[in-house]
Amino acid sequence: MRILLVDDEPAFVRGLRATLEQHGFEVVVAYDGEEAWKRFKDVAPDFVLLDVMLPGVDGQTLCRRIRAQGDTPVIMLTARGAERDRVLGLETGADDYVVKPVSGRELVARIRAVQRRAGPDGPHGRARRRVELGPLVLDPDTREARLRGRRLSLTPKEFDLLLHLARRPGVVHSRGDLLLEVWGYEAPADSRTVDVHISRLREKLGDPDATGLRLLTVWGRGYRLVHVRPRHG
Description:
Radius of gyration: 18 Å
Oligomer: single chain
Helix content: 40-55%
Mean pLDDT: 82
Distance between the termini: 53 Å
Number of domains: 2
Low-confidence stretches: 121-127
Structural class: alpha/beta
Strand content: 15-25%
Order of helices and strands: EHEHEHEHEHHEEEEHHHHEE
Number of helices: 10
CATH superfamily of the largest domain: Response regulator
CATH class of the largest domain: Alpha Beta
């Protein structure tokens, strides 16, 4: 797997690159936003590790550009630890958000977690049965989501989360359960990773009165996805 590593700290890049290569990854490096964008278009990486604070084009802007091009998985790296910064990073379309300093071992584990769920051999990929919930159709084989016949543009994590919820409609899933089942790890207690992805899914699913799909918050417990036939007349 080819990883584009974008960070302006040479010492950090050297250490992380060595660790990633030891684990069998091919690593392409960029030290600023403009260089990163050029390399992204030139080498078509399978994965992007992206620092938030970059010279020129910042990481959040670059993440939006990457996401506009498709569903390449992105993990954002930053020295910022405030919850609002993590939420902002996820809102740009990142699949995960890691606060530095971070060990190479932990970062590899996070990459593997995203990779497993985005790839055809992951737990969702092995379950080939197409899922249909009202006008929503999810195909784990092609990783394509369609709503009323229209293709939904989803990130890998958004697809995995929607698929997990749609497979058990009406069941309440706690934030902790979703973090373990979809992300594959336990995030800090103040993380809003799930909340941000739920918000993005609601936006992409559109008007629940038109589709009958409702992504509900069960206060104090978690989230559930239901389909209620829209009323006519």
